[in-house]
Amino acid sequence: MISTSRGGSAFLLAQLGAHAATRFGERVAELDLTLPQTGLLRAVATEPGRSQQALAGRLGMPASRLVALVDGLAERGLLERRRNPDDRRLHALHLTATGEEMYGRIAEAARAHENDLLEGLDDAERGVLQSLLGRIAERQGMTPGVHPGYKRA
Q1: What per-residue confidence (pLDDT) applies to 3?
Q2: Which of 48, 60, 142, 33 is nearest to 94 (CA)?
Q3: 151 falls in which pLDDT band (50, 70, 90)?
Q4: Would you report the helix, strand and coil content of the chain in percent, each value rounded to 5?
Q5: Contacts of 31 (CB under 8 A, 6+ apart)
Q6: Is the pLDDT of residue 109 over 70?
């Protein structure tokens, strides 16, 4: 029988998700970034050259909100827009050298965050947890690697 003194599984997922997001937000704030900026840098790092329009669609966010995020990161020298050689009307997004360095710092913060959050689990348990959470996310129709908060941006 499942104990309900701590809440059901859905409640625990929500509780841990809120806690994890808050803690990670604190970590990236030390890098002078917000969570949406961090997610955008990650999206560009993992799929460089994607157009702003395509990226907005992947993230499920309004294009106008994405433009504002890109503008802010470009002003800081972390992202750059390049003309798409296949369609000159589109801008392809790429990390700059400074952006790549920042992405490395974000990745380091993410590893430390995950280790802190999951410190009570061994490697095998971490693998099982990730597999189970991945299955749940897939069944819920979530886009892999994309935080659902972008849809509300």
Answers
A1: 56
A2: 48
A3: low
A4: 65, 10, 25
A5: 38, 102, 105, 106, 109
A6: yes
Distance (Å, rounded) from C-alpha 31 to C-alpha 27? Answer: 7
Lowest mean pLDDT of 27-31, 45-49, 127-131, 141-145, name the range.
141-145
Rounded to two decimals, the pTM is: 0.84
On whether the CB atoms of residues 82 and 94 are closer than 8 A, the answer is yes
The answer to whether 27 touches 63, Cβ cutoff 8 Å, is: no
What is the average pLDDT value for the chain, to the nearest integer? 90
Q: CB burial class (10 A; 0-12, 13-18, 19+) of residue 75?
A: exposed
The two tokens of residue 44 are: 């560009």
DSSP per-residue codes, 76-144: TTSEEEEEETTEEEEEEEEE-HHHHHHHHHHHHHHHHHHHHHTTTS-HHHHHHHHHHHHHHHHHTTPPT
* Location of structure tokens 């560009």: 44
- Residue 93: phi, psi to the nearest 5? -100, 135
Tokens standing for residue 36: 């949406």
Q: What is the C-alpha separation between 4 and 106, in angstroms, rounded?
A: 36
pLDDT of 138 reads 93
